[in-house]
Design a protein that fits this description.
5-stranded mixed beta sheet; 7 helices; single chain; alpha+beta
Length: 303
Amino acid sequence: MKLVTFSTRAEAAGTQSKDPATSVASATLGIDNPTPGVLLDNEVADLSSLGYPTLLKLIEAGKPALEEVAAKLPKASRIPLSAVTLHAPIPRPPRVFAIGLNYHKHAVESNLPVQKVPTVFLKLSSSVIGPDVSIILPKISTEPDYEAEFAFVIGKPGYQIPLEFAMDYVLGYTIVNDVSARDIQLSTSQWNLGKSFPTFTPIGPSITTADEVSDPHNLRISLTINGETLQDSNTSDLIFKIPALIAYISSITPLEAGDIVSTGTPEGVGLGRTPKRWLKPNEEIVITIEKLGSLRNSTIAEP
């Protein structure tokens, strides 16, 4: 299944405007009427009748809730995709963990050695937006960058999870753009704030449940800007695979249902290019990951 959070066009109007005159705050407003659903080609199945007000609540209810969804899906009411707005699947995830330098070729382009333990940082949940919402390029940064990333979503709580059981904790997979203000990020050893400006964490368009992805470590991942391919790789190049990341993070902090772990970006980021390639206003960024679909966002200058 492809789990989504959606609202009708009327409900979504004004909450996530693409107008550059819209304030930064309005671009990251909470959704008034978030509804959990399942994406079915050109339709969305409405799951609101099942009693879960949000997708996060459904995830927290565990495997029985997902089994109920699967059983009742054929009779669920459906809405044309053209009549809805898709939001980030979990608009305010408990936490967004991100992994730095986790592709072999990205480490090479960064002139850094392969790390012995994962570099883990957090992206603030207030930076999360969904598909087709504008990324606002902040005035105080002159080096905004893109990062196509494959992410997994935790389906149940766990602490000190053994490596051999780690995949049991994966609900599914989604796409993340780890937008980064490089000048802010690299001015300190702490990366969080330089990667957490409002709108700097596009996520979506859905969470593809784990049963639909037989091998998450063999998926093509690519990024284009205005149709030009700038990143094109495969998750087989990951240094630390999903079980290793789950075991490592959970050895330090308990994982929660709905946590998102973004596994890092492959080579081709703007920072690693000669000359550097920074994001500019009025560009369209499309990240595509095999079996997951595409995440599309445009850029605008901060008003």
